[in-house]
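Question: Now follow the chain.
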Amino acid sequence: MLFLTLDLDFTYVLVLALVMIPFILLNTLVFGPFLKLFDQRHERIEGAVERADKKLDEAEGKARAFEEKIKIASRKGMEARDAIRAKAQAQMAGRIEEERKKLAGKLEGALANLEGERRKALVEVEAEARRLAELTAGKLLGRGV
């Protein structure tokens, strides 16, 4: 078997010290502050992202609320329009009914007037027919009837 022996002398300690001292100095003066700065930067970025996400959520909530208000206002507008339309249709139906009644009255008056004129014409026609019959009979018989 092969045994290794280690002789420790001052040069090994010196080499170890020369390696460890720069490592410790670099760690405390360069790497430590750099890692701390990197962590702070990362936290700022993450915080900004979280704040942006919160603002985005707030904006989306406000947009949804705004859309809901628009829907409500549209629905109210349509209801108001329908109410106005129904009122106008009722008024129009009332006016049409009034005019229909007026025209029915005028029609009845005109029909009554026409019936009177018809009767008067019939009386005149009957009288004229009698006169013509008497005249014709008188001419045929040669004497007055």
Notes: The helical segments are 10-141.
